[in-house]
Design brief:
Arc Repressor Mutant, subunit A, 120 residues, 3-stranded antiparallel sheet, alpha+beta
């Protein structure tokens, strides 16, 4: 098994799942976000978003704050310090994997390219 494949296999599945990756990425750009805002930006149903947020909260990656304004419930979501490290580290891993894949592709192209003739 290649190192690149092992690195891919070792990605954190809690973070790497597409909906959770989108949630964490959206949260990485702000201090906190309202549940309704996240739902609209990410395009999940309320139930789906709630399920993913519960997974992220259980993993210690996000903090949910629930409050009421009058009789209307409001939930805000923010990254924990562990969540910020996780999403930053995840994108660094993906960038490194992309660079490695590109480098391997370039080496393969160079190895398979016909040798240039030195005759003139």
């Amino acid at each position: 098994m290649s190192k690149t494949y092992e690195d891919l296999a070792n990605l954190d599945r809690v973070v790497h799942e597409p909906a959770r990756l989108a949630i964490l990425t959206a949260l990485s750009g702000c201090l906190s976000a309202d549940f309704t805002f996240l739902r609209s930006v990410i395009g999940l149903t309320g139930g789906n978003l709630n399920t993913h947020l519960t997974t992220l909260e259980t993993a210690g990656l996000v903090l949910l704050r629930k409050r009421f304004e009058g009789k209307v419930p409001h939930t805000s979501v923010s990254l924990t310090a562990n969540g910020r490290r996780a999403i930053d580290g995840h994108w660094e891993q993906l960038t490194a994997l992309r660079r490695e894949a590109h480098s391997r592709q370039m080496r393969a192209r160079l190895q398979s390219a016909p040798a240039e003739s030195s005759s003139g």
